Amino acid sequence: xxxxxxxLFLEHEEEDLASFLHIAMLFGxxxxxxxxxxxxTAKLSHDEFI
Length: 50
What we know:
Layout: H1 14-27, E1 31-33, E2 42-44
Antiparallel strand pairs: 1-2
């Protein structure tokens, strides 16, 4: 994660995206979701906020 702190998920990788988000929530990591539509974003916080 230090070398490449981001990942681009393609349309056929929906299950992988769900797995990555699940792991982030389980371990309490911060994560951001930036879809192609620029006005919709989501942020997971280690403080248990979405």
